[in-house]
Amino acid sequence: MREVNFLRKRDAGRGLVVFVDISDEHYTPADHGGVEFEAAMGRIHAVLPDDTTLQNVAVFRQVYEILGMGWVYAFTKVPIFGFLAEVLYNVWASWRLALTGRPDLATIVAHRQQRITCQEPDRCQRSNDVKSTT
Question: What's the rounded Cα separation, in Å, for the pair 102 and 120?
Fold first, then answer.
């Protein structure tokens, strides 16, 4: 979130970059390049105006370039450094939830699905409801 907040400030309301809250129950893949919630939680994605989808380090490189700070990720254009950056990002992406004290991806996905289901009252079962038979 620190980086997102930093980038939002750099955008300064110009609308060059649109940040999407994938945790929002109203997030729909169809409106965001077909990127499913689980994929979005697992790796960072960006959908360009032409519907091209980027992920991983390419997202950071593109966003920083758009915001006039392309030099920050310019080194990743060099093949060996780009490869190493991808490897490091993959390690970070695999461990970021645990390192930041959050549940694993499967748990997050299950909780989100439960929240969505519980917004549809006919389909929500409360775990503390007890049915009695007489």
Answer: 26
pLDDT in tens, 51-73: 999 999 999 999 999 999 999 99
| Under 8 Å between Cβ of 45 and 53 | yes
Q: Where are the domains of the chain?
A: 2-123
Which residues, other chains included, contact 44 with Cβ-Cβ below 8 Å and sequence gap of 6+?
A: 55, 56, 59, 60, 93
Q: In this structure, what are the phi and psi dihedrals at residue 55, rounded to the nearest 5 degrees?
A: -150, 165
Question: How many angstroms separate the CA atoms of 22 and 118, rounded?
Answer: 18
- pLDDT number for residue 29: 94
> Residue 72's CB: how many other CB atoms inside 10 A?
13
pLDDT at 131: 41
124/116 Cα distance (integer angstroms) = 9
In this structure, what token pair is assigned to residue 54? 């980027």
Longest dimension (CA), the chain: 73
130-134: long-range pairs with CB below 8 Å, 24+:
none
